[in-house]
User: What shape does this take?
Amino acid sequence: MVEKYYVTYNQVHKLCQEAAPKILDEFKPSLMIAIGGGGYVPARILRSFLKQPGAPNIPIQAIGLSLYEQLSGSDPVEAPGTKVTRTQWLDLSSLEMANLIGKHVLIVDEVDDTRTTLDYAVKELEKDVETARKEQGRSEKTTFSIFVLHNKDKPKKGQLPAEMLENGRYIAAVTVPDVWICYPWEAQDIDEHDSLAAKKGIKELLAEHR
Ligand SMILES: O=P(O)(O)OC[C@H]1O[C@H](OP(=O)(O)OP(=O)(O)O)[C@H](O)[C@@H]1O
Ligand SMILES: Nc1nc2[nH]cnc2c(=O)[nH]1
Assistant: This one.
């Protein structure tokens, strides 16, 4: 049984805050793509920290990908599926796709576990942007970067482009052991979640590992 560790909204907020200067320095994103559902809250928090005086907010687009299915019963630990399901995607025919061409796009998710989801997202987005670029006869290069709150230190099933990793276009706020992370937006009872976080917090687990 995988052990569960808890993260609070407050900690998520601070992880986004701490990562923002590096993201601004290294990526200068002009657009975020949040992978739902877990990427939505981090992307929204991050937007506030990426906002530059005098510049508009960075737009957030959303895609929905699902790999994990809830097991029967009430236990929140989920079992990985084998196939990524698109529950929501960008409208390939519209301005949405053309909007990505030539941009620095930051893909945001909460956790990189087996990496299957990120592998799928990057490959599919690159493919679709390339199709749109050709269709429109444009030449600008689109670059994708990734931000996750937690990267699990484990063998990955999915892969990211080598040049993305080599060029520092992958940022995880923290790298954690292979445990199950309970996020506050999944909680039915947020007060109970916070008290569990005080006893079994991912932050404390990381401090022990240091
Ligand atoms: O690295 P991986 O093994 O691919 O796992 C990471 C993915 O799993 C979770 O999504 P999930 O499929 O549970 O959907 P949800 O975000 O809607 O809960 C999470 O939000 C990531 O997208
Ligand atoms: N909530 C949650 N979802 C995940 N999806 C893949 N790994 C995890 C995890 O540790 N926690």
User: Anything to note?
Assistant: Strands lie at 4-6, 31-36, 60-69, 79-88, 104-112, 143-152, 170-176, 180-182. The first strand starts at residue 4 and ends at 6.
